[in-house]
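FAQ

Q: What does a record look like?
A: Structure on top, sequence underneath. For example:
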């Protein structure tokens, strides 16, 4: 009887390892469906997307000689 119990545990362990390996393979193969286009020279083409102006954050820098305003710690 002890061997049947050990075999059942072994099947559970092997099943768990198979599931984990399949999960890792699935996660590694996921991602963008786009394939990088290759140029004639064989190098991958790089596409840089810029942020539209209406979504850009505006940052004001202090003029020379002007100290930056400090907020007191609460």
């Amino acid at each position: 009887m002890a061997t049947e119990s050990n075999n059942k545990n072994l099947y559970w362990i092997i099943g768990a390892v198979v599931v984990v390996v399949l999960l890792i393979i699935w996660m590694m193969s996921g991602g963008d469906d786009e394939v990088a286009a290759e140029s004639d020279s064989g190098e991958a083409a790089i596409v840089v997307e810029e942020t539209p102006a209406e979504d850009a954050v505006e940052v004001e820098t202090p003029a020379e000689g002007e100290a930056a305003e400090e907020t007191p710690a609460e």
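Q: Is there anything notable about this one?
A: The first helix runs from residue 2 to 29.
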